[in-house]
């Protein structure tokens, strides 16, 4: 079983207007609420791919109820630990450019943390994969993901991690199955300025392998993604399309890669699936559908660099 963990889910309030004027009353041309948060997005894409997963994490208040209701409607298996404080709402503003306003998230109590960790412990079985993704709500230590790893390994399960900075570096000695920073996050991880060519990205990606990651992907938004192994590096892209809402593209890539890797054991096939899912989501209002993923998959170009 794949478990996605979203400690800090969100309602993603995706709003659009042609031209945002700060300090004025602006009228929206569209507004939609979507269940969001990195692990939840991963589970939604796995569902589209026909791969079973259960979404775990926290949920509280009317915002949490909305997310759980949407997941139920989408038939995404989930068990979110109830919190007294309400789940956050993130604003995704599409005007002259894409702007994201992500809230810090609610305060989680010690009893709620205990309920979540005991639930996870009771579920884990050998061969499971736990995908830990996204920011931490208030009240959780920055070591929270790393602290879950001994429990995951004790159950003979593996983990995938999508977080940034020191929290990501701290988990590498425990051999995450997959890491997928974007190229900005990768440069920041090693205190580098923005990378200007692909070989710089490959060199930094190999550092993640040396530090312990089993599979390294680096996403580069409209410039596609790299899969970096000890001896090879592959650059994958898709045919240009109309970008509608790239929120969740990274989560979609992680879902496509991890789900396909678990199903087939074939990293190249998994990389293609990851690219297709990421770009298909960027070319959709909500996360990608199965049909959109198949359409985009037919346009993938991959080259060794
Ligand atoms: N504008 C885009 N056009 C085509 N594909 C995209 C676009 N934005 C994202 N993608 C696809 O989704 C993947 C993940 O997107 P990215 O923005 O790099 O991740 P993150 O959301 O984690 O920053 C990219 O590697 C690419 O395959
Ligand atoms: O947990 P964080 O880092 O605040 O990110 C949460 C936000 O990221 C998303 O999961 C989208 O992530 P990506 O665009 O990186 O795939 C949104 O659904 C959510 O609003």
Explain what this protein looks like in three dimensions.
- The structure is a single chain.
- The chain has 305 residues and is an alpha/beta fold.
- The chain has one domain: Ribokinase (UDP-N-acetylmuramoyl-L-alanine:D-glutamate ligase, 3-Layer(aba) Sandwich).
- The chain is globular and about 50 Å long.
- It has helices at residues 38-48, 61-73, 110-123, 144-154, 165-169, 183-189, 198-211, 249-264, 267-282, 290-297; strands spanning 2-6, 10-16, 30-36, 53-60, 78-83, 88-94, 98-101, 129-133, 158-162, 216-219, 225-228, 233-237, 301-304.
- The strands form three sheets. Strands 5-4-1-8-9 form a five-stranded parallel beta sheet, with helices on both faces. Strands 3-2-6-7 form a four-stranded mixed beta sheet.
- The structure holds adenosine-5'-diphosphate (ADP) and 1,6-di-O-phosphono-beta-D-fructofuranose.
- The site of 1,6-di-O-phosphono-beta-D-fructofuranose has 16 residues, from strand 2, helix 1 and helix 8.
- Residues 182, 219-222, 224-225, 238, 243, 246, 249-250, 253, 275, 278-279, 282 line the site of adenosine-5'-diphosphate (ADP).
- It catalyses: beta-D-fructose 1-phosphate + ATP = beta-D-fructose 1,6-bisphosphate + ADP + H(+); D-tagatofuranose 6-phosphate + ATP = D-tagatofuranose 1,6-bisphosphate + ADP + H(+).
- GO terms for molecular function: 1-phosphofructokinase activity.
- This is Tagatose-6-phosphate kinase.
- Its EC number is 2.7.1.144.
């Amino acid at each position: 079983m794949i478990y996605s963990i979203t400690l800090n889910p969100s309602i993603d309030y995706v709003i659009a207007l042609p031209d945002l004027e700060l300090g004025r009353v602006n009228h929206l041309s569209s507004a939609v609420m979507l269940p969001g948060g990195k692990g939840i997005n991963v589970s939604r894409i796995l569902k589209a791919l026909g791969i079973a997963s259960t979404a775990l994490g926290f949920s509280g208040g009317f915002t949490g109820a909305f997310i759980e209701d949407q997941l139920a409607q989408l038939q995404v298996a989930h068990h979110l630990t109830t919190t007294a404080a309400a789940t956050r709402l993130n604003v995704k503003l599409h005007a002259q450019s894409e702007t994201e306003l992500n809230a810090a998230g609610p305060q989680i109590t010690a009893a709620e943390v205990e309920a979540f960790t005991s639930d996870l412990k009771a579920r884990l079985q050998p061969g499971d994969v736990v995908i830990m993704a996204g920011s931490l709500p208030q009240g959780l230590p920055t070591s929270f993901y790393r602290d879950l790893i001994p429990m995951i390994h004790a159950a003979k399960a593996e983990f995938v991690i999508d977080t940034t900075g020191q929290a990501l570096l701290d988990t590498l000695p425990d051999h995450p199955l997959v890491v997928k920073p974007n190229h900005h996050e990768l440069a920041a991880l090693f205190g580098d300025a923005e990378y200007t060519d692909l070989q710089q990205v490959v060199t930094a990606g190999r550092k993640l392998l040396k530090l312990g990651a089993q599979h390294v992907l680096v996403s580069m938004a409209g410039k596609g993604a790299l899969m970096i192994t000890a001896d090879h590096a592959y650059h994958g892209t898709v045919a240009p399309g109309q970008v509608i809402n790239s929120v969740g593209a990274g989560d979609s890539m992680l879902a496509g890669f991890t789900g396909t890797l678990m199903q087939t054991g074939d990293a190249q096939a998994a990389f293609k699936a990851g690219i297709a899912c990421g770009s298909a989501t960027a070319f959709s209002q909500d996360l990608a559908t199965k049909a959109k993923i198949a359409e985009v998959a037919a346009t993938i170009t991959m080259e060794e660099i």
